[in-house]
Amino acid sequence: MKRTVYISAAASVVLIVAGPVAAATAASADTARSVCAAAAVRADVTAEAAAEAAVKKYPGVVESLDKDGDTWHVDVISKDGKEHAELEVAANGAVTERNRESEDRTDNEELLEAKVTAQQAIKAALTSHPGAVESVSWDDDGGAKYWDVEVKGADGKTWNGHVDPGTGKVTEPTDSDDRY
Predict the structure, then answer these.
(1) Other residues' Cβ atoms within 10 Å of the Cβ of residue 42
(2) Which of 13, 107, 124, 176 has CA atoms 20 to 30 A from the CA of 161?
(3) Residue among 102, 57, 99, 64 at smallest CA distance from 83
(4) pLDDT, tens digit, 9 for 90 and up, residues 24-76
(5) Contact call for residues 93 and 82 (beta carbons, < 8 A)
(6) Phi, psi of 43 (to 5 degrees)
(7) Rounded to two decimals, what is the model's pTM?
(8) Where are the alpha helices (DSSP H) in the chain?
(9) Reduced to 3 states, what is the DSSP secondary structure of residue 42?
């Protein structure tokens, strides 16, 4: 009888002391599983993937995209050139429309008629300078239009290049401020 009392008392002490520890351990395991699941859902989206996701949500032509942390900001001109949408593409690929407005501009014609899209300019730039694209924009130097592409290399250095919208040829800007 005494033995049963001692065993019951010992078991009670173990449960009183170990109960919170076991509960905390279980909670930590649940938290770890949640963090792992969130990490599995989050995947860094490349510039190409961000551009494709944006035009899937809002059909048109990418005018620019740039990375801000884990989010891509993408500007898309509608296929008829009369509307402009500002979209955000999250790290998991989710697209959110932030703004849409009518365009009363005729300068969209060159962008819409360009043989080389932003996505193709990205590929051309990465072929020339491997790394991760940080931004792409439709630009001009006071006359000729081109794609301005910024690539961050594995060495951490940033390269800016121009991609011809007709040929896809990659050149380095002549202005030294635009290079490394």
Answers:
(1) 13
(2) 107
(3) 102
(4) 444 445 544 444 444 344 458 999 999 999 999 999 999 999 999 999 999 99
(5) no
(6) -140, 130
(7) 0.71
(8) 2-41, 47-57, 108-113, 118-128
(9) coil
